[in-house]
Amino acid sequence: MEDWRDLAQVLLNGVMAGSVLMLPAIGFNCIFAVLRYPNFAVAGFATIGAFAGWVANAQWGMPAGLALLVAFLAAGAAGLLSEELALKPLRPAGPLTVAIASVALTILLENIIRFSFGNDLKGYDLPILRDWRFDGIRVSPQQLTNTAYAIGAAGALFALLAFTRLGRAMRAVADNPTLADIKGVDPDRIARVAVFIGAGLAGFGGMLIGLDTSIDPLTGFRVVLSVFAAAVVGGLGSIPGAALGAMVVGVGEEMAGVLLEPAYRTVTAFLAILLVLMFRPSGLLGARN
Amino acid sequence: MEAYLVAMLVFAGFYALMALGLNVIWGLTGMVNLGLVGFFGLGAYASALLTTKLAWPMPLGWVAGALVAAIAGGVMALIVARLRGDYLAIVTLGFAEVTRLIASNEIWLTNGTDGISGIPGPWRGEVSPQGFNLIFLALVWATVAIAFVLLSRLSHAPFGRVLRAIREDQDVAAVAGKPVLWFKIRAFIIGACVTGMAGALYAHYNAYIAPEGFAPLLTIYIVLALTAGGVGSMRGAVVGALFVMALIEGTRFLAAEIPGVSPVQKAALREGIIALTLILLLRFRPQGLIPERTRTRSTT
Prior knowledge:
The complex is a heterodimer. Chain A is mainly alpha-helical. Chain A has one domain (about 5-125, about 135-280): ABC transporter involved in vitamin B12 uptake, BtuC, CATH 1.10.3470. Chain A has helices at about 5-35, 40-60, 65-85, 95-115, 140-165, 165-175, 175-180, 185-210, 220, 225-235, 240-260, 265-280, and strands at about 130-135, 135-140. A two-stranded antiparallel sheet of chain A has the order 1-2. In chain A, helix 10 (about 225-235) packs across helix 11. The radius of gyration of chain A is 18 Å and the shape is globular. The model of chain A has no long low-confidence stretch (mean pLDDT about 90). Chain B has one domain. Chain B has helices at about 1-30, 35-55, 60-80, 85-105, 105-110, 130-155, 160-170, 170-175, 180-205, 215-230, 235-255, 265-285. The interface between A and B is large, with 44 and 42 residues.
């Protein structure tokens, strides 16, 4: 990197990539915060969102912005349904049983998508835009729009958590479920809301990933390691942590892509997980314990 | 038909070895390992590379494959064994993906996604294909038998009892003066070693390995095998492996019977059924077909 522009380009690309990772990572941590188990099915939810958005956009002719809403709702519904049917009955057996079942669940969801849509790559119906150039720095308008969508969705979640009764109740359950229960917050209802929002955000993020390239049944699974890395680096269960972690992982992967080989971006994510776990297991913004 | 049956039983042997390995890590010690396929892959690649590139004799390659996987397991356990189970799940899952990525991208070593072909097999070419299958069948199940006897003894020896104590309550085990971390690391090494051995044998049976052969679905097969057989029970691990093989092949015939679905849909249907079976088993029969029996807990 001879030039400051190269560095700026890498940082910019990293932040844009990170903002797309941010939503599934927030979704993962949102579910973890309330239910205390890692839901590996976020990969499946992301893929479902990507395909629901594709149907809305490429087949029904909705604009991408509206299709993102469809992606959110469809993935949220899929998340809620699979939680109630498949995962919730396993909760008494312990968080690890649920985690294992969620891996099976993600394979099941992936194959439902494969059965319905096949393995072929699918692209969204988007206007083709030329990259913008500022003094040698390239910006793809599509990526910039995606970043804006991601920040908008994350902002909406933060507003929900900070300013509404529901958000307060969610934070209360995440903080201390017993105490929240005593205070009259129904933990089951909060769990359902958390799963719906978490899975929905994963779906929203899945579609953003697809907008950038194309989609297939493995869309969600391909980024899952980066998503976990974002969640762990930020601190499991911390929602601002997931946002920060996603940026760190996004920039880190982009740098590794330039310095090493692009294929090793995911390896960087894995190394980030190991480093954080060795030196600061609670993550950057994780809980005290 | 006979050749098909023998080939399936050989694969069931690989699954049984992996399930035995997973049983030490997850069944006895209670540590999740969602990256089992990574250790399987390491064993396969190590043995394949050493025998094809450096012309090592096969048995030495197999031992090396098991050792490489064991070392990787030890290093990983050293880093993560003190962490909570959910972190362990994430790291092991990530480990398997990284192994596959490296195998796909270090083309100078692994030939990338094209894979390694021409891996030697014992008496391959000198005997009929079916003869080779039978030789391998004996080899794999002899290995399963050895692993089964050793691990069963281990599981009822004081060592195994400590592992179970750690699984039930590691604080109590620590208070009783057991070096919990050191036991966990050894359990991980043993489990990874057996899994690596399975991988090494697989490479020499198949004659060809490629990164796509080491997908996370294989880990699910083994978790399913152990859950079906009975987590913590060595007999259960072997029976579960046979069950999974029957299930995988059963879905093949089932899918073939359904008219009007494309090959991709059939494959999707099969993978979906297997994933669904695991979810259903975890819910309705978590103790498996052969529940674990210990002195403190008789059959329930």
